[in-house]
Amino acid sequence: MKKFKFIVTILTLSFFSVHVLAHGPSRQKVSEKIVINASPQKVWSIVSNFKQFDWNNNIKSTIADNNQVGSERTLEFTNGSLVKQKLEKTDKEKMMVSWRIVETDNKVLPVNSYSAKIFIRNNDDGSSSVNYKAGFYRGFMGNDPPEELNDQNSKKKVQEFIQDSLKGLKKVAEKN
Q1: Which of 13, 49, 117, 170 could be a cystine partner for 98, CB 3.0 to 4.6 Å?
Q2: Model pTM score
Q3: Which residue range forms the structural domain that includes residue 126?
């Protein structure tokens, strides 16, 4: 009887330990900042226009119904990929806008449950600090993702997208 209990205990523990190791993906986060030599109001006028995202050089066109919370826009990338986003919140007083991805093409943004926020802050010298934050899960939600959909590649693609967006925003906002 003791031997039987011992075997059952060992089998039970090994069964649970396998399930503990076999968990899904963890939420990833990317946060990038940039200083822009333009007033916060000028930067806000660009960022808060949900109908435009032409400040990212990888975006060929933007199609959006309007600038109201709940609006959706489709970003067409220069490679033909489409990403659909939904405006979640805008706060003019705090100069914050947030949105989430509704549909994505894993070739450009290999993510699931992606949400992002942009905050604009006054630097008291006429310039602005822009903080772009995103949270997401990798492109493959199961265990053992293919390399192009794993945590590292998903995070790299999001980081590149955010950096390109901020560089483009700086270029557009600093034009006279």
Answers
A1: 117
A2: 0.85
A3: 27-173
